[in-house]
Request: fold
Amino acid sequence: MAGIDRRLVLHFDWTLFALSLGLAAVGVISVLSATYAGPHHRLDPLVIHQLTWIGIGAFLMIAAAFLDYRALGAYAYPVYVLTVAMLGVVAVIGHSTGGSRRWINLGVIKLEPSELAKLAVVLVLVRYLREEPPKGGWRLRHMIVPAVMIMIPVALVLRQPDLGTALIMVLITATLMFVGGLNWRTMAILATAAVLAAPLAWHYLKPYQRERLVSFIDPHSDPLGSGYHIIQSEIAIGAGGEFGKGFLKGTQARLNFLPEQTTDFIFAVFAEEFGFAGSLILLTLYALLIARGIWVARHARDRFGTLLAIGVTAMVFWQATINMGMASGMLPVVGIPLPLVSYGGSSLIAMMAAIGLLISINTRRYLF
Reply:
């Protein structure tokens, strides 16, 4: 262990590490359930892929934990430029699946730059906001530069199209600006501008995206079309009852009624098999992870660490909230993975690396 300060090992945040692996384990169980074809069939390759990505993600989480997070300030803008460049490559030669062009095919893995863009957005915003705000808070003129920086990746992600990831970027930005010391008057102006811009944003949505937003109000108006996802997900969650049907005994996924069962609607797979009790345990794991992230932010030794911890925690909070709200019919379907649980290499690896930064922030407060 030469070259590593012993204090980093002694004060390693095992709570964050364990919570992350616990949620990842729920993901493996759920992917296995969603792809289970009976005892006489081979293990689905998706399960093997997920386990492999968890291994890679755990390695990167540990590596990020021993990284001095303060050094990221110098690399925030280069990382941002590289990420925007990758999003540009996706727009030109990206791999298409299901009508969306979101991936760069690297052979071994299909890289999804939009997942990396979430973390890049956090880094570049924290880099910009790390100085103490002027008296009275950040004003509108101070927000022009970060607004432009965020609009570029958001526009490229919307073009894929990926409304869910674009929404997460906007919500992370709003969270960091609020915590970073945004002036109340500026906040009111931006909120009003967002409301007024909603009709314009509606005009640029794809037809299927509009249908999904409308079907949220009354999914039964088009039960075999735009409302199908919500209806089947609600059936799966409701069928779980108090304690669920049991592991590998869910029918909505096995009979292929539930769409996107390994990604966007994996929560419904888990809820059907483990019921309200299992869902409550899953919610508790997320609540503990988010609470720990906030605790790390409050105890960070510098403003950069505080804002970085808030940004990573906001990633987890908004994704978990919107995904589970979407699966339960409480929010419109916009296509967002459940953090650390949904199938997907880019999402899982990026999230575990981000949590590694949280561990670094908490650990290094003992060093300076």
Summary: The beta strands are 95-97, 100-105, 110-111. The longest helix spans residues 266-299.
